Amino acid sequence: GETRVNLTQDVGFSTIQRKVGIGQRDWTATLVEQEFGSDEVARYNAALNGRGLIDYEEEIYGETGLITDTKISATGGSEKTKFYVGASLRDEEGIIKNTGYSRASIRANIDHQLTDRIKFTTSSNFVNSTTQRGFTGNENEGGLSMGYNMAFTRPWANLYPDEFGNYPDNPNAAGNMLLVRDRAINDEVINRYIQGASIDINLYETDQSFLKFKWNGGFDSYSLDTYVYVPEYHQAQRGLQNGFIGVGKNRIFNTNNQGFLVWDNYLSGGSLQLTSQVGYIYITFDRDLVYNQATQLIPGQTTLGQSGTQEFDQTLENVKEFGYFAQQELNYEDKIIGTLGVRADKSTLNADQNQFYYFPKASIALNVANFDFWNLDLFNQVKLRAAYGETGSSAVFGSLYTSFQAVNIGGSPGVSVGGLRGSDNLIPETASEFETGIDVTLLDNKLSFTATYYNRNINDLILQRALQPSTGFVLEVTNLADLQNQGLELALNANPVQNENFVWTSTTNFWFNRSEITRLDVPPFAPAGSGFGLSLGTAFIEEGEPVTQLKGTIDGEVVTVGDAEPDFQTSFLNNFTIFKNFDFSFLIHVKQGGSNLNLTTYLTDLARLTGDLDDPSGEERTSNPNTDRFIEDASYMRLREIALYYRLPESAVSVFNGAVNKIKIGASGRNLWTITPYTGYDPEVSAKGGTGLSTGLDVNPFPSTKQVYFHLALEF
Question: For domain 81-130+190-333, is the CATH number 2.40.170.20?
Answer without folding.
Answer: yes
